[in-house]
Amino acid sequence: MAKIKHHNFLNTVHEVFTDAKAAGVLHLYAGGESFSGRTITVDGRELYHFGTTGYLGLEQDNRLKKAAMEAIQKYGTQFPLSKSYISNPLYEELEEHIQKMYDNPIVITKNSTLGHIGVIPSAVNDDDVIVLDHQVHWSVQNAAKMLKTRSVPIEMIRHNNLDMLEEKIKKYRDSKRYIWYMADGIYSMYGDYAPIQNLMDLGKQYPQLRLYFDDVHGMSWTGKHGTGYVLDQLGELLENVLLFGTLSKTFGASGAVLACSNPGLYEKIKTFGGPLTFSAQLEPASVAAAMASAKIHLSPEIYDLQSDLGERINYFNSCLGQTTLPLIDKNASPVFYIGTGMPKTGYNFVNRLMREGYYVNLGIFPAVPVKNTGVRITISRHNQKPEIKGLVEAMAHHFPKALEETRTNKERVFHAFKLDYRLNDGESRSSKLNISIEDSIDQVDQKEWDCYMGGQGVYDWKGLKLLETVFKGQKGQEHNWSFRYVIIRDKQGAPILMTFLNLALWKDDMLADAQVSANIEEERKIDPYHLCSKVLSMGCLFTEGDHCYWDGDHILAQESLDCLLELMEGMEHPLGSKMTVLRDFPKDTPWNTTLYGHGFLRVRMPNSCTVNLEGVPSMTDYIGQLSSRNRRHYRKDIQLFLNRSFCKVLSQVDGVLLSQFKVLLGAVQSRNMGLNTFSFPESLFDCMNESPLWEFIVLTPEVDSEKVLGVMFCYTNLDQVYVPAFVGMDYENLEDYATYRQLLYRTIERAIERGIPKIDFGMTATFEKRKLGALVHKKYAYLQTGDNYILELLGVMEGQH
């Protein structure tokens, strides 16, 4: 498999959001002339509002509104001056009140995002290290990544995995001053908690540990004076903890707040903290509203408000407990998440609830993995018990309908979230399809397979037979592959869909930046399987091309596609797969909408190349039909070198020569960190050498020379296509002999000589292949992962040296 171009995160997010926007569940506008908090108007419909983060409803409190309006009358709409020079007249009083709440020095920031950007680079020294929980809020991750320019190492652990955290602490405790672990107090999607007490125990064991918490979703609705979940768990703010809260969301105003009990660190952050120094300060109305809210937080009233909300949360939990809805994390926070699995099911479910009169948030990538799409429901004091009960009843009614309409079931949803579930007899759906799944090509009819899948790549029947022989019984787990052959037919036996699947160990950084792979390879000198995962793919790492036959005009075409995706989903857990990959699609594939709806992300691959030799009698004729520019390239960059070396085509070689081929192929692979894969097993080359379908185009400096300049490993598929699958080269003589260009030329020459009408030239080096007349085709892959950890980890590692 050739190099897949580096994944563009923003482009992927754009495509996912565009899909959700088209479904009418994202980037909506609220309507109406006023807003109460209990309901919200969308597209002219008044809906009960279960999407707010104002859990206590203080944003509608008349005391906050009055304070804001009076501040505007007195001080204007803004105070256009940096706080480094002078703060507006209300700031000092607000800071005094917030400090009373926390009983510690505080810094007020414009918002939490700018706050993190200001605080993290100031708090973290160059001789520190940062460890991120992979679900910590984007604003924290974004601020932390800024420290890459100062060569501060940034690590990542799986969500709430303290064993991984302890491993990182041990890794850096002898080389770094402080080890900063950054996490949320309450996580914004699932509403689950950070393990505060366990983290404090870890801090006692390792004094270098520093804890940085973003607790904006734990603010106000819990804790003494509403200072949040984290401080409630801590009891007091220790010097090894930095704590972020918010003056927006539940607090009812705007801004964010940092609490710090370390006097020296506090002064460092307060004196100069990037945006804290240069950004505009909070508007007078926001400061005044925050002041009014702070007074409520410092009074006994805050506990009445918390109790009132808690009663609603408990009631919602009670109602949910009478259903079989997949609640992802049951707890006492006001945040609830009902999983739908596939994005298209989430879109359908949200739209159904809106039609019933209830607004909820869609949870989608990158906030959650694409296949962990769902609805986030937030409970506030605005919500009354009748509408809480009504929402649960509406969800219980529409959830199975959304599943049915999007061709899925509860078992698949529960599987996506690793929850236990057994399919009820009444939920099974009759199928009009006949499905066969075989684990060896020997169990598949050779003539039928070659009729539908032959004529491209190296995966005709005999080609796959060779791969099965090679990739089993090997010592290394990376060299033992499992194959599955899927044929989906109609009741008359006609194939609608046919493909082969492969389970193999991939390096997680296979598609990452080359420098990232180089860094990870240093770790693999100690642990050879560091950051490696089993991947279930359509096709395998040895093959390229259209890995699936699909009769798109068949009346059951869509059902066959849905069936394949469900089959692959069901294989993930038993096979231990961490990622599913479907490859080598054109941009306009009719599968695109279905794959997005099933939770796949599209990734751009390098262009692939083919050469059409139909009706071309000789190499001279082929060169003659090239464009004038490409003919000049041939005369200048290839023809002049043809007489400097000798070319021969060998179908079988001795052991000495075969060993040279292995070394030359290894030289190419070792230089291609942009496509970081495991080497192939030694037996592969022996099988190639013994197979009449493989041959070697070999360049040597002289006719009888034992030195090999380069070799192309070529496969013949049913005499329909010639496949130069791999190349090996001696890099010391590369330019003197134009080795790669010569091998491309000789490959075309050989295919014409054999009368084969097409060459599958594969991917990479498309510029060189185009100059020899190759047609270029854009290709894409679709990826689906159980979580975002690996994608985010590799993103964090980029730019680190």
TrEMBL record:
Residues 51-384 form the Aminotransferase class I/classII large domain. Its cofactor is pyridoxal 5'-phosphate. Residues 704-770 form the BioF2-like acetyltransferase domain. SUPFAM superfamilies: Acyl-CoA N-acyltransferases (Nat), PLP-dependent transferases. The keyword Manganese does not apply. The keyword Transferase applies. One of its GO terms (molecular function) is transaminase activity. Keywords: Aminotransferase, Transferase. It comes from the Bacteria. Pfam families: Acetyltransf_6, Aminotran_1_2. PANTHER family: CLASS II AMINOTRANSFERASE/8-AMINO-7-OXONONANOATE SYNTHASE, LD36009P. This is Aminotransferase class I/II-fold pyridoxal phosphate-dependent enzyme. It comes from Flagellimonas okinawensis.
